Amino acid sequence: MFDRLKEDIAVVFDRDPAARTRWEVLTCYPGLHALAWHRAVAHPLWNRGFRWLARFISHVGRWLTGIEIHPGATIGRRVFIDHGMGIVIGETAEIGDDTTLYHGVTLGGTSWNKGKRHPTLGRSVVVGAGAKILGPITIGDAAKVGSNAVVVRDVPAGATAVGIPARVVTADEAQRQQQQAEKIGFSAYAIGKDIDDPLVQAIHKLLDHAAVTDGRLDRLIERLTKGGVECGDDRAVADGFDPKQINRTLE
Questions:
Q1: DSSP character at residue 172
Q2: Rounded CA separation 96/100 (Å)
Q3: SS (H, E, C) 48-78
Q4: Is the pLDDT of residue 243 over 70?
Q5: Buried residues in 233-245 as b, exposed as e (16+ CB within 10 A)
Q6: Which pairing describes strands 100-102 and 80-82: parallel, antiparallel, or unpaired?
Q7: Mean pLDDT of 20-29
Q8: pTM for this entry
Q9: What are the pLDDT digits (tens) for 100-114?
Q10: Are the beta carbons of 128 and 143 closer than 8 angstroms?
Q11: Residue 80: beta bridge partners?
């Protein structure tokens, strides 16, 4: 028990630059209190069959910390709950080692049926403030869930989920999009490569494709015109494409 507590205190210093002293962490971090209460008292009582007492202990912990952890939930080592107010962790939820949860996170269910109905988080997962992960889904190792995202399907290892409902973008996909932009000499209009939303990245690809197509079409028209072929003038339609306006819409 004390080894786990030392481990959890060390994790706070690793992941929270605001932490200054061990005494401050031990006395002023509700996430640490909620985890210690769950591991040392509520969860062992639940596993030994003292279900009402475990629920009552959990209820007291919620009242003291603002963090609701069902005594049946399984939580790994070196889990860090930052701030913590409003976190809800359901009965059949499983949280892997080295995971980080921010305030307002819900690991909830979507069914009233018995059995596995809450999510499973792998190792080193980061869940942003206000995110809702719902149902018996799996969040892969080292995945990230953006703040206020609503996740209702599996997220692969190393991927990022953002939006409502959450859309998933993998690290490989983000890198491939950037390489393609560099290859054709066109970068999405004032939108950085670090934007994680896959919907925005899809628009990046459409803009990239439109820019390349326009360039090829201009060269083709130029060659046809030099060869004596009348190609007409449809610039009025082309001029309706305003990338700056699209950029403002995406900001």
A1: H
A2: 10
A3: CCCHHHHHHHHHHHHHHHCCEECCCCEECCC
A4: no
A5: eeeeeeeeeeeee
A6: parallel
A7: 90
A8: 0.68
A9: 999 999 999 988 888
A10: no
A11: 100
